[in-house]
Here is the input.
Amino acid sequence: MPGSLRIAIVGGGIGGLTAALALHTRGLDVRVFEQAEVLREIGAGVSIHPNAARLLRRVGLEDQLQKIGSPISRIVLRTSRGEPITSPEASGTPAFSSGDRGYNVHRADFLNLLFGALPKETVTLGHRCVQLKEEADRVRLSFANGASAEADVVIGADGIRSAVQREIGLQSRPTSEGIMAYRGLIPAERIPWADELKDPALWLGSGRSFLLYPVARGRLINMVAFVPSDVESEESWSAPGDLKMLAAEYAGWDQRVQDTINALGETFRWGIYDRAPLPYWSKERITLMGDAAHPMVPHVGQGAGQSIEDGFALAVLLEGCSAKDVAGRLKLYETIRRERTSKVQALARMAGKLYRSEHDDPARKAAGVREWMAQGTWVFGHDAERAAADALADFGR
Ligand SMILES: Cc1cc2nc3c(=O)[nH]c(=O)nc-3n(C[C@H](O)[C@H](O)[C@H](O)COP(=O)(O)OP(=O)(O)OC[C@H]3O[C@@H](n4cnc5c(N)ncnc54)[C@H](O)[C@@H]3O)c2cc1C
Here is the structure.
């Protein structure tokens, strides 16, 4: 593509691959450098809510999302004893009535879908970026294997321990939410009542919550069990967890919760951390996206969703951009996305606190859910491409 910007993305996770797809669809010249020798994802589910699903639909992924995903139409809420939390705001959730549908997917299926939608030569595996050097009119990338590359724009989509973040002079510190999660995947046939589980189900108890949703078209049930923690559990997604300790945390809860825990073959611990919003994301021709820019706690299911929004916003802002305008466009990207993702980060913390409030009263739990959902409809109804296009139009005036 002569004359077109050369865009390098560091990191081939959900954010990096989606950004590549959005940029490629707009005809931009993009390459992804991923450290792993083979693309792989942890065994877990991820929710793709309407704000992200509507963008993926526009690049032609609707049929494939339907094939791999379980549609989300509402969240079924219960107290720890299994009593329904029935306020219309809580179970009919305005969040899911924005017209577009979301999906729960297995992370590996989703990553494969994104990878398969890109031209083969887009993703280069086995390349861990170790250094970025800004030269007069380009950036030089160096990799641990001795290789190097150059690009007009570099996007750091390299997750919570981002090397690109470090290369632009930032250092963010993890902040614990004072909880940890046990997570696991269970074959549906091991849970006697799995047929009932069409939509995500969330049990809200005193200081704890328990989330289940189907993935892989209902073949597997994804579990995330949030419990208090005063130990600094590592910021890991895959440390082994103890099934007996997990069962003890939920002793006396609804039988469905206990059945699920008993059906688990293994569980993993996940330290729940986020980081305060960064003071900036971009430096000249380099910027950040996804968890490298704005890791968040998982209570509104938006970590992946916000990284998907970032990629589509970047594609709008970089389309038709000349090399001399790159720094200005990246600053514009940072301005619109930093404001939105900081609000989502704060909302996710607030939702977690309300979920785990120290009582087990259905009416008060419903009021808490209502409180965050009333503030959260803007999350699911957002159109990141339109917001970027509007910002660009204002910028050009
Ligand atoms: C168990 C679990 C459940 C979750 N559930 C949800 C959910 O329901 N909904 C939701 O929206 N979010 C969810 N999240 C959060 C979401 O998964 C993350 O926010 C999202 O994956 C961020 O994507 P990313 O591409 O920015 O980062 P990552 O997925 O971390 O990808 C970063 C990539 O960069 C690569 N990399 C790192 N360093 C380098 C380097 N130096 N050079 C080259 N490559 C590098 C890594 O190998 C990796 O492939 C969940 C997270 C977990 C762990």
User: Anything to note?
Assistant: The mean pLDDT is 90. The first helix runs from residue 14 to 25.
